[in-house]
Write a structure and sequence with these properties.
This protein has 4 helices and 9 strands. The protein has helices at residues 16-19, 27-41, 62-67, 161-172; strands at 3-6, 47-50, 72-75, 92-97, 100-105, 120-123, 132-137, 142-148, 159-160. A 5-stranded mixed β-sheet has the order 4-5-6-8-7, with helices on one face. Strands 3-2-1-9 form a 4-stranded mixed β-sheet.
Length: 173
Amino acid sequence: MIYYFTSDTHFGHVNIIKYCNRPFKNVEHMDKSLIRNWNARVKKNDMVFHLGDFAYRNSLSQRNYMEGLNGQIILIRGNHDSNNNCKSIIDSMFIHIGGHEFFLTHEPDWGAGGQYGGSLVICGHVHELWKFQHFDYPDFGIQYDAINVGVDVWNYRPITINEILKEYEKWKK
């Protein structure tokens, strides 16, 4: 089993193409490309953590999209997921992989990971704005690094934890 991470697919969201300057002709092209890219990497028994904003409210149901995607998918609720068919009850979670602790959440400013022993925060929400960001709240004694796994900065596909950590180590230098 391989663990993958992604966020902000916004399946069925016509305007996200314009808002984020996505390289797709239309929403059908975007949806098909995102599904093809996902399934080219993710196999049936792999685990995908989707960190919010899975599908748009007027699009096909969340179930229709999920049925076309490989892997076991854990949905973490994003700010646009309250008005679509995504019924995730998870707002955030901690995971441990390869000796690292990660705090998974949609919005990076929910970076409570800094309060829990310096966990790396894996998030979405910021689309193409940045891939890595350092947050420092000196008044609270909190510092942490956040990694954006949104499709807009990772070639419109889920990524593995090893890919994340490799790029993160380069960024830290």
